[in-house]
Amino acid sequence: MRLVKIGVASVNATVGAVRSNVDRCIRLATAMAEDDVTLAVFPEQVVGGYAAEDLVQWQAFVDSQRRELERFAAETARLRTVFALGLTVGVEGDLFNVGALVHGGKILAFVPKEKLPTYNVFYESRVFSRGMPHMDREARGVFCGDRIFQFDFGIVAIEVCEDIWSPDGPMRRRAYSDAEIVCNLSASPFRAGIGGTRREMIATRAADNQCTIAYANLVGGNDGLVFDGGGFVNQNGRPMLEATRFREGYAATVVDLDRTVRSRREASTWRSDLETFRREQEPVPAQVVHEKTADRAKLRYPAPPPGTSFFLPSASLPAKTPRDELLDDFHDALALGVADYYRKIGAFRRIGLALSGGRDSLLTLLIAHRAAELLHPELEGAARREAAGKMISAFYMPSRYSSDATQNAAARICADLGVSFMVVPIEDAFVRELEATRTLLGPGGPEPTELTKQNVQARIRGQRMWNWSNTSGALFLQTGNMSEKALGYTTVGGDLEGAFSVIANLPKTVVIAMLERLEKRFGYPGIRATLETTAGPELAANQSGEAELMPFEVLDACLYLYGAEKLAPNEVALALTSVFPDRDPAILTAWAEKFARLFTQSIFKWVQSPLAIHLGSLDLDRERALQLPVVQRTEWKGE
């Protein structure tokens, strides 16, 4: 047996907080060393924070990361654990996103990332240069390039995030060059279903390359990105460790590297591919590290988890359905995003929102309350809930169209959560603003339209929230959902306002599903009270969002088919007949055409919305996922 203990760390790094980030790494490094960890893997860009974007163009920012890495090396010099952690390194005209290998107080090498993503939320090739096979550069006296590293316990390779997502990444040639453990340093943002996708991908890579993969991921919110942390150790396709997500810390497990060697000898197809590699390519050079690593005498052979055996998995059923797991992931990701936005900016003293008694603002409030709990990690139970409630102010601002049902629902949930609730009517201001609008239109001018009358109410509320937040130093949360934002069913200067948008990338059907899930989990009567009201903005008499737009399930299907699948309107209409076979095809066609028209006409609105939390590949965020021109014509649709 050749036992090795591998640790994977999730660190909540903040962009630019190089000293604090490294302090966090040192604390975790010390804890892992005390836990007899042989090899510890930290996330991508953990020193400088991710995503730094154009901040890496400041030389002082890049230099500070090297300085802090040297401090990490010095302060961990007495530890025998081998550490891998990520940062930015400059070499002449290049900036590289690297994994650094540190041991015994020395920076042994930098290994640059080769696969630079420039899609969805990523812009890495804008600022970074690619690592290349067999690259051999020097960064102020430290090797920077393509190597593997031979320690007294085995041979290690380093790679960074996207490198693992390509089957033709650097892992292949490094594994063929005898690397046994591949350390992947990642900053992989949360998105729907990503946990299972990572698990399957890592298992595939470990099996294809007959190696042990140690995968560490960043945790925490930065701007609109939320990193869900967690980590994996997978040996030759066999899962050995899956770390808890959405929390800072580390997890570790023991592997027998002799098993990796034996698996390679048994895998005839792998050996055949290895022979081809040896004929056609040069192996990656190995750097021999002579310093002793952590004592492995206390390590014990990895036993199956309790309730399982070497031959049988656990007989217990999953605690959650896949649907509930996804909804809970959304809740965790959104709360972490709000909490870290609040904490890391450091400009806010409390949290506030306009609470309408409707579904969207209710979900935003529930997420804000959970975020406020995360901001009080020193408290538990009732004390934590009470402290969270005291951080939040909710305002109900009724006009003539507001109903008793929504006011009662808003008051009920605030009582459930211990949140400050204030009723501030806008009727008088509404009348005055309509008169001012008539004055602007001039004598004999047109009467303000019904749509204008609706927007006036929303704008009064938005202005009041800004005025309150300016004085109170509060983080003003915007509460709109993705479906209505996509069609411009929102008011610029009104309900589109806020400093941070919480649920702007959640479709309406998911908003409702999350509320039903949270009611089941927490039992707050205010959730049920809200779900029993009519879904609508209450800006006109008897207003219903579905009546004015289309049924939410159809709207969200159009959003997916048009925005994610990139179907033309006539193709969307055809697909809808399969999704909703019981509905009239002519009506479905009309809805598909309406969706496409309103979507295109509303881009100018949603590009003005606040920064929003990234949740998937379809986010309506022009700086992140779905980048569309504001000015465009739609002749290509065949209109």
Automatic annotation (TrEMBL):
Residues in coiled coil: none
Keywords (alphabetical) are: ATP-binding, Ligase, NAD, Nucleotide-binding
Metabolic or biological pathway, per its Swiss-Prot or TrEMBL entry: Cofactor biosynthesis; NAD(+) biosynthesis; NAD(+) from deamido-NAD(+) (L-Gln route): step 1/1
Q: Which reaction(s) does the protein catalyse, per the Swiss-Prot or TrEMBL entry?
A: deamido-NAD(+) + L-glutamine + ATP + H2O = L-glutamate + AMP + diphosphate + NAD(+) + H(+)
SUPFAM superfamilies in the record = Adenine nucleotide alpha hydrolases-like (SSF52402), Carbon-nitrogen hydrolase (SSF56317)
Kindly give the InterPro entries that the UniProt entry links to this protein. C-N_Hydrolase, C-N_Hydrolase_sf, Gln-dep_NAD_synthase, NAD/GMP_synthase, NAD_synthase, Rossmann-like_a/b/a_fold
Q: What is its EC number?
A: 6.3.5.1
Q: Which GO terms describe its molecular function?
A: ATP binding; glutaminase activity; NAD+ synthase (glutamine-hydrolyzing) activity; NAD+ synthase activity
The Swiss-Prot or TrEMBL record describes its family as follows: In the C-terminal section; belongs to the NAD synthetase family. Belongs to the NAD synthetase family.
What function is annotated for this protein?
Catalyzes the ATP-dependent amidation of deamido-NAD to form NAD. Uses L-glutamine as a nitrogen source.
Fetch the HAMAP family from UniProt: NadE_glutamine_dep (MF_02090)
Protein name (database record):
Glutamine-dependent NAD(+) synthetase
Species of the source? Polyangium jinanense
**Gene that encodes the chain:** nadE
